[in-house]
Design a protein that fits this description.
mainly alpha, 5 helices, 2 strands, globular
C-alpha cells in the first residue's frame, strides 16, 4: 500500500493528526503557525524536536514549495 503524502502547509487538522505522535493539539499548532518554509521553523515550535520531525517525514509529511501551494489550493 502506498504511503499517503501530507503537505504540512495545506493539510487539514484531521490529516495532520493522522501523522505519528501528532495529537490534535500539535496539529492545531501547525495550523496556527503555518505556512512553513523549512523544517527548522517547525523544530522551533514547542514540542516539535528533530526526532518528531523525522517521524513526520518518514510517514509522508512534506513541505511544498510556494509555487506548489498554488496548484493545491
Amino acid at each position: 500500500m502506498a504511503q499517503k503524502k501530507i503537505n504540512i502547509n495545506t493539510a487539514s487538522l484531521e490529516e495532520l493528526a493522522s501523522l505519528p505522535k501528532i495529537s490534535q493539539e500539535r496539529a492545531q499548532t501547525l495550523l496556527d503557525e503555518r505556512p512553513f518554509d523549512s523544517w527548522e521553523e517547525i523544530s522551533d515550535l514547542p514540542g516539535f524536536d528533530d526526532r518528531l520531525i523525522q517521524d513526520i517525514q518518514k510517514s509522508g509529511g512534506y513541505l511544498a514549495e510556494a509555487d506548489e501551494w498554488a496548484e493545491e489550493e
